[in-house]
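Chain X:
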Amino acid sequence: MAQSTRQPQATAIARAESPPADRSGLKNALMIVGIIAILLILWEGAKWFAAINNYAIALGPLHIDLTLLNNTQLPHLADIIASLSEPAQRNGPPLWQMLLESVAFTFYSAFLGFVIGGIFGFALAVLFAHVSSLQRGMMPFVVASQTVPILAIAPMIVVWMGRVGDVTLAVPLIAAYLTFFPVTIYTLRGLTSMPPTALELMETYAATTREIFFKLRLPNALPHIFTALKLASTASIVGAIIGELPSGIQSGLGIAILNFSRYYNQSPSRLWASILVAGLAGILFFSLIALIERLVVRWRPVESK
């Protein structure tokens, strides 16, 4: 009987000493590859279906126009990839080189706006967490700021920065406008969702407000903060692209997308290539923040009951 009891214990100890390999990364990679493959099949399958039906379907009295799927509206994926090696302009560099320079400019503006918006949102959340009356009074205005379309605010910021003397600052500020909100909301949640027993214990040991913040509030809020930063990373890319449109800046993905959209019927693959690069820039930024999160945060927050 004792021997049979020791065997499961020995097995449990062996598993604890040599845990099974973590295959979550491989599963995620396979899932991403599978989703991409499905999207590619649907893309090319829709074009093939429309082509064999002459881009029109008649279902009794109902006629469905499928010209949206022809090559002048929706190019083949191979054509989009091939356009990257073609000159963006006559006797100019290849498209991939121009887009690489554009994405570098946009990424810099987005990162600067990400930092500005992140710092402002974090400071606002800390202030709200310690002054509840200020939170109740200002939170409606923070929420209302996100209901105003960014396309309406962007030209005003460009004009204001032009009068200050540096219109290039308008793009990071527009990116910061989209960044600060998720950082404020998620950080505030993390700072205020501590277990009451932990807070009472800290107060019992006469911990100061600063000690409570750095030893309890901030560690509990870090997972929430990184969730906000991952959302803000993609929002900053979008904000930078939108901010470049009214600024008149001739660099960046915003002006590239605008120029290629004007000649969409002549070369739709260039616009789709620009959109692809913009999406990859957002994925890269998001992945960078996710990697930093894995290195910094090795625990999950404990929510207050």
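Chain Y:
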Amino acid sequence: MVSSDFLKPTETKGVYSFENGRYHVVEYLRDISVDPASAQTAYFMSKMNIHKKQLAIVLNQSAQVIQSGAMQWFAGDIMAGTDIKGAGDLAKKFIGSKVTGETAVKPRYEGSGLLVLEPTYKYIIVSNTNVWPGGIVLEDGLFLACDSTIETKVVARKNLSSAVLGNEGLFNLSLVGFGAFALESPVPREEIVEVRLNNDVLKIDGSYAIAWSPSLQFTVEKTTKSLIGSAASGEGLVNVYRGSGTVWMAPVR
């Protein structure tokens, strides 16, 4: 097994472990790789808790699928491949990439060793599909990595006009299966508002939802019974999630 001090906390580096030691978020608490021109910016960024972060994944005879272009380095007995299962799967993923903006082919790394992804100023959130029965639908750009036991697939909005009026994409990437996954979020986990619906309704004034259960029905509706009343109230149209499931909102981004 490869040995590395990369996952050891230091004065300028914190390491947070998730999912039984498989996922590690490395956060650079103080960026000392600066020059005089950038030192002031780096200082004030650290005071506002804006730090570079990296996702490190420990592979133990296992496999991970990651976002294309996200790999920085890996060590150990690891083989790189793709998540393509054949010509038909490639065609399906290519079509999906055109409608979601996601890359058609996602790299797959399998074996034993350490896989480290590119640093980011966004927030890395680790979760598991066992808290998302039926899967999770993601806003574009959130996917970072997942266990190979999870299937990435494209889902379409059930209502074309609602997707357009709601300022949302017509298609989204979903994760279905069993295992852990990591997201690259615009806000930290503690600022995400989690709403669990049980045959209920959630109305959001804006595109603040970043992840939701595929079981939920999405529509766009007026805040009042008439367009005139909606205009008078100053609200207009709202995004509506109806049914049973979970919604993650990032209202402060």
